[in-house]
Amino acid sequence: MNRIAIAFARAVLVCLILLAAVLPAQAGNLVSLESGTIAPLPADAAVSRLLTIDGRLVALGEGNAWLLDETQGGWTEMAWQPGGTVAAVATDGPRTYLLLAAPDGSLTSIDRLALAGDALSSSPVPLPPTVLTGAKAALIGTSLYVAGFDTDRQPRLFALDVSLAQPQWTPHAGWPGAGGEITSMTGQTFG
């Protein structure tokens, strides 16, 4: 290499080293976190999920649920009987949707969970037009996205605008390949 190319390469290397040193110093947290402790759940509580419903912390079990009472510093047990196995939960804090599945993993219902005072309530949401197994969900804006596999193990993705009075599922292209397992699903917006 000639001297100009070597000098240019050194200048680029020095700039990269300086950027690597300066940029992390300018980075801030993407979210703020508060640390603290919460009261323990009862010892016999078989909890499968911790989630927020209407902005409050709820622990779900197989046949019951517990609501954290931040003012009293403890948990209040609530009657709750799901109509299947909890397959997935999609929440954005104020809204929470629960996907329930049959023992074979096929999606049997989708419910919007809410708190009525200190009681857990649910309202059904229409199922996607295709039987799905291994379903997961995410909320983005006013849409609930549900992904899973059809009876031929082909990946399927549907969206439902839950803000509409009569929502209809919109199919979207799945992802390449068949089979596998969906372990999680999340959504993100930029704005």
Care to describe what's here?
The protein has 191 residues and is mainly beta. 13% of the residues lie in helices and 42% in strands. The chain has one helix at residues 3-26, and strands at 47-53, 56-61, 64-69, 74-79, 85-91, 96-101, 107-116, 119-125, 133-140, 143-149, 155-161, 169-172. The strands form three sheets. Strands 1-2-3-4 form a four-stranded antiparallel β-sheet, with no helix packed on it. A four-stranded antiparallel β-sheet has the order 5-6-7-8, with no helix packed on it. It has a four-stranded antiparallel β-sheet with strand order 9-10-11-12, with no helix packed on it. The termini are far apart.
Present the secondary structure layout:
Blueprint: H1 3-26, E1 47-53, E2 56-61, E3 64-69, E4 74-79, E5 85-91, E6 96-101, E7 107-116, E8 119-125, E9 133-140, E10 143-149, E11 155-161, E12 169-172
Antiparallel strand pairs: 1-2, 2-3, 3-4, 5-6, 6-7, 7-8, 9-10, 10-11, 11-12
How much is the radius of gyration in Å? 23 Å
User: How are strands sequenced across the largest beta sheet?
Assistant: 1-2-3-4
Secondary structure tally, helices: 1
Secondary-structure element pattern, one letter each: HEEEEEEEEEEEE
Structural class: mainly beta
For the secondary structure, the number of strands is 12
The biggest beta sheet is recorded as: 4 strands, antiparallel
C-alpha geometry: globular
Summarize the model shown.
With 191 residues, the chain is mainly beta.
Which key terms come to mind for this protein?
191 residues; mainly beta; 4-stranded antiparallel β-sheet; globular
